[in-house]
Amino acid sequence: MRTAEIKRRFLAHFEANGHTVVPSAPLPAIEDPNLLFINAGMVQFVPYFLGQQAAPWPRAVSVQKCIRTPDIDEVGKTSRHGTFFQMNGNFSFGDYFKAEAIPMAWDLLTKSVADGGYGLDPERLWATVYLDDDEAIDIWHTSVGLPLDRIVRRGKADNFWSMGIPGPCGPCSEIYYDRGPAYGQEGGPAVDEDRYLEVWNNVFMQFERGAGSDKENYPILGELPSRNIDTGMGLERIASVLQGVDNLYEIDEVRPLITKAEELTGRRYGLSKSHIASESHPDDVRLRVIADHVRTGLMLIGDGVTPSNEGRGYVLRRIIRRAIRSIRLLGFEGQALPHLLPVARDCMAPSYPELESDFERISQYAYAEEDAFLSTLRQGTTILDLALTETKQAGGQALAGTKAFQLHDTYGFPIDLTLEIAAEQGLTVDVEGFRSLMAEQRARAKADAAARKSGHADLSAFRSVLDEHGPTDWLAYSTLETDSTVLAMLKDGLPTRHAAPGEIVTVILDRTPFYAESGGQDSDAGRIAGDSVEAEVLDVQRPVKKLVTHQVRVLHGELHVGQKVHAAVDPEWRVGARQAHSGTHVVHAALRQVLGPAALQSGSYNRPGYLRLDFSWRGGLSAETRSEVEEVSNLAVRKDLAVTANVMPLAKAKEIGAIALFGETYDEDVRVVEIGGEWSRELCGGTHVDRSAQIGPLAVTGESSVGAGSRRIEAVVGIEAFRYLARERDLVLRLSELMKVPSDQLGDRVTQLVAQFKDTERELEKLRAQMVLANSGGLAAGARDVRGVAFVGAEAPEGTGAGDVRTLAQDVRGKIDPARPAVVAITAKAGGKASIVITVNAKAKELGLSAGDLVKGALSGKGGGSPDLAQGGGLPAEQAGALLAAVEKLVGDRA
Ligand code: SER
Q: How far is the CA of 212 from the centre of ligand 1 (A)?
């Protein structure tokens, strides 16, 4: 029976028994600060169990998406643990209780397939109950007819359920399916939970629990207002039973991912010799991890989680990274997610169609995360491998905490990976040391933040101004200047009454035409002037809702509280600000027109003449795409589209498709800015031009990456765009004069010159190498005998590159009779420093000589390499001779 059908039958069974079908809540557990993700079907109903809210229905049934990661290390090693799973559940809110819940579950499980049930053999089912729950035993035995020897009493750890945090809880009764002797030992669920698979949990929600230290130790605070039922039937588990497969990774919604991973890696799934999951072949375990984690990644991004370094985003990041690492361990080196994620989508989209329509966005985040991780891996793994080898060579058992910290801090290499890789090589990691370095770093960051904050006024000062004087009368949309009165002033966060010339203070006016920085738009510039006083406005903010503050520098005269002033925005500035902000909307619309709706703005900044916009996109834009975005933008300018701003209820704005930004919070009423009607429709509080032609020319000046899956486009507008283009034109003119070709041939000319230059460089390189090597025969012939070792100590010609010095040393070594032990040491001088390359032949190695040791010996530890070839440097150039003498002496001592 397919998973989708199992789900359908579950809902139908309970709907027929008077339950209302309730959709799954999204995975992030936003309502509950103690929980990152929804981890059970009942989470969305907690307020009803606790009696905080009246349940809208007495009975409900749902299939809830869940994430559980505490057992992430068990994934693939048992048949039961998946990070993402779906939980079928029926719920009673003070309605029916044990006597009805147990038979309802039994009925669905054992009813024949033809009658809409799952058709399980009743002889294979077992039940467990909480220690003293005689009532449940009686229902199982008397009403259901289950023999007493298949009803097992178990303790709190197994049969008393809570979410693991304070909230509703209660004793439970679970149903187990016996998969037969191939899956483990006989004796019931208490003996073997892989053979006896838990398929159904009936929780009798009766109590409220407090905080505790583990699964068993927490206080019961009291009884819930009513007795409830919360049941959970793991959809994947029952699917594995009904589909006759060993575990949840082999069911129809997951197995295609294993098949794809087999294809990519050339490994074969199913090498395990037994059905018992804990005895699985390591390749099988890895293939299961890949399948589980890729599916979880898809579902998480689908529900709005994006990779980051904390909270939910970190869980996602870790899951994606574990999947990628597992597939690499199976020998696949390239980008795996573009192959795997579409398979996961095809498995899950029949139940969750939004995965299909939103796949563009989902995949961008996933693929970008993989790109970023692969480059982290490339850098970090090399460094880690070296550190692990050094640790082993030094006879250590544990990688130093400083090393693990450096990998984390400098290369973003995750500690869990460091632990895993170290363990694979039989080493541990000094986790204590790592933790204390992390703690120090956090303390430093906190101190920094505190220092920065104290530079700003305490918000309470602003709040008391607001309490005393009320909200600022804010006129930015309607006028550029107004008369007003100074209500209050702050200096360094403290109230002040006067400000003298040169002083910088924060001024609060009763009304103001100044735009306070927000929505990406920089604040207005301008002046506040009064009777013989003038101040320049440096910054305008809204530190608390409804209060606008101006940071000003007094130019002349004295500013004081109560003064009548005239506040005037610099009109030129505002023209530029409006152009830039409308330009930002135009570029956003153009991006979405060219790249598709997934190119959604994630941040922006604009000030007169300049704008930048960050948007979600994977990979850079080609030159053509950039030009296209620029062209679409300029065409929109030319069309002279009307720009309008209307205030409307948020629901209405959403209905007409206005773009709201992810992570922003909006009021009930919002302002919708349109350019050309629906062509660009965004929620925005900024100041805009009246018609698009007023934006003037728009030139894209740059496009770059700002983190995984996020790009930044920059542009100049209006007169700044003209100036930018004029500068570019002047540059072309100058170059074409220099190159002596017309500007349209400039490209060809430069390409030709670059090619010529490269040829010349190669030629030069060859000549230099020949010159250096020409001498090697002479050097080999001049080898001196140092206690039976042929020793060559020489200085490379001035200007010889490091690579050439190595080639020379090896060449000289090759020219010495291999039957003689030989050591060749060549020094070179560059930039006032001396360096040395030492190479040793096989005979000399037999005598115990090692190039690495010689370099270390001569340079007191600075430098290194292999026993055959090593190098070091950093001494003052005049010590080159002494360095050779030192090596010769070491050879003499050791030979
Ligand atoms: N809340 C219980 C569980 O998750 C039953 O739904 O097992």
A: 19
pLDDT, greater one: 462 or 294: 294
Residue 727: both structure tokens together: 């500068």
Structure tokens, 104: 């309802």
The residue whose two tokens read 């505490």 is: 70
- The span from the CA of 608 to the CA of 578, in Å, is 8
Which tens digit of pLDDT belongs to each residue from 575-616?
999 999 999 999 999 999 999 888 888 889 999 999 999 988
Nearest CA to ligand 1 atom 2: 232
> Is the full-model pTM beyond 0.70?
no
Cα dihedral sign for 463, 464, 468, 473?
negative
What is the biggest distance separating any 2 CA atoms in the chain, rounded to whole angstroms? 104
Quick check: CB of 203 below 6 Å from ligand 1? Answer: yes
What is the CA(149)–ligand 1 centre distance, in A? 25
Architecture of domain 459-472+485-562: Beta Barrel (2.40)
Candidates 569, 484, 571; CA nearest to 526 is 569
Query: Which option is the CATH number for 775-894: 3.10.310.40, 3.10.450.50, 3.40.630.10, 1.10.10.10?
Result: 3.10.310.40
User: Which tens digit of pLDDT belongs to each residue from 368-418?
Assistant: 899 888 888 888 888 898 899 989 988 889 999 999 998 888 777 878 789
Tell me the backbone φ, ψ of residue 9, rounded to 5 degrees: -65, -35
**CATH 3.40.50.150 for the 3-250 domain, yes or no:** no
Token duo for residue 600:
């959604």
Q: Tell whether ligand 1 has an atom less than 6 A from the beta carbon of residue 230.
A: yes
Looking at the domain covering 574-727, what would its CATH class be? alpha beta
State in Å: Cα 172 to ligand 1 middle. Answer: 9
Indicate the top mutation candidate among 43, 175, 231 to test ligand 1's pocket, ranked by most ligand atoms within 8 A of CB.
231
Mutate to test the pocket of ligand 1, among 67, 87, 88, 200 (most ligand atoms within 8 A of CB): 87
- The token pair at 220 is 């019961």
Q: What is the pLDDT of residues 259-295, one digit of tens each?
A: 999 999 999 998 888 777 778 898 999 999 999 999 9
Nearest atom of ligand 1 to the alpha carbon of 232? 6
pLDDT for position 51: 87
CA of 291 to the centre of ligand 1 (A): 24
If you average pLDDT over residues 813-834, what whole number do you get? Answer: 92
* pLDDT tens-digit readout, 404-430: 998 888 777 878 789 988 988 899 999
